[in-house]
Amino acid sequence: MARILVVDDAPTQVADMIKALEEQGHQVILAMNGEEGVQQAKAELPDLIFMDIVMPGLNGFQATRQITHLDETRHIPVVLISSKDQETDKLWGERQGAKGYFVKPVNKKILMEILQEFLG
């Protein structure tokens, strides 16, 4: 199955996502902030990245921009997942290179739809 990087600093959200992804047989790599997310993306080259937006230090928009502009990671789809549900946030995420945007909390059904869309 797929190797998925989850970049999020919310323990409850992370635990729910890890459980749902591992139940489907996916390997989960975890990063707790944007800097760590960029480092893990370069080191692990996951198949998909779920990126929170609001995090201390490098936020999800900034981390997404770095990941989608680096030669070694630009091929990895980044899906932003956030409690921010404004259209301007979605558009800004797309401008940073994100391929998708979903509002928290993400339930299992939505998570599986995302996986199907980006991993086939």
Based on the model shown, name its key terms.
120 residues, alpha/beta, 5-stranded parallel β-sheet
Molecular structure report:
This protein has 120 residues and is of the alpha/beta class. 46% of the residues lie in helices and 19% in strands. It is built from five helices and five strands. The protein has helices spanning 11-23, 34-44, 60-69, 87-95, 108-119; strands at residues 3-7, 27-31, 48-51, 78-82, 100-103. Strands 2-1-3-4-5 form a five-stranded parallel beta sheet, with helices on both faces. Helix 2 packs parallel to helix 3. The longest helix has 13 residues, at 11-23. It starts with a strand and ends with a helix. The relative contact order is 0.18.
Order of strands in the sheet with the most strands?
2-1-3-4-5
Q: Supply Rg.
A: 13 Å
- What is the mean pLDDT? 94
Low-confidence stretches: none
Oligomeric state = single chain
Shape summary: globular
Instruction: Provide the succession of SSEs.
Output: EHEHEHEHEH
Largest sheet, strands/sense/barrel: 5 strands, parallel
Strand coverage percent: 15-25%
| Count of alpha/pi helices | 5
Helix content: 40-55%
* Number of DSSP strand runs: 5
The SS-based structural class is alpha/beta
Distance between the termini: 11 Å
